[in-house]
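**User:** My hope is that you can spare some time for a protein that puzzles me. I have put the entry right below:
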Amino acid sequence: MTTDRLDQPRDLRRARRPHYDPEAFGRLSERIARFLGTARFLVYMTVFVAVWISWNATAPADLQFDPYPFIFLTLMLSLQASYAAPLILLAQNRQDDRDRVQYEHDRRAAERNRADLEYLTREIAGLRLALSEVTTRDYLRSELQRLGEEVREGR
């Protein structure tokens, strides 16, 4: 007789449901959604439907597998659409998550750039103030010329 003790952790039980990797499933759904959104897929589906309809409309009666109302074709297309829609939504959600992460990264980079720009602006303003107090070559040259003229005039 086994009793459950409250001071001991439970033994791990095996999950009865199958395990799947959500990341691998997400990547697969993105690949499928990416393919569903191409012209190649539209051409393939158009050719498939055209062959299906032409075969079932023109083949001998004993070789037709889906007569005129094409109910089996409708069922297959509905099944394909019922799987395609959630796969596309899953791919869009994953893209939204990636976009959100990229947006946050861009926002942080923009904040760092703004802080760097403000720092450089303050430094340039400080340098301008410091330079306004420093004698420039042109000012010194003009003062020396003026003093030279005063000395020549004074002789």
In short: The mean pLDDT is 88. The helical segments are 22-36, 39-58, 71-133, 137-154.
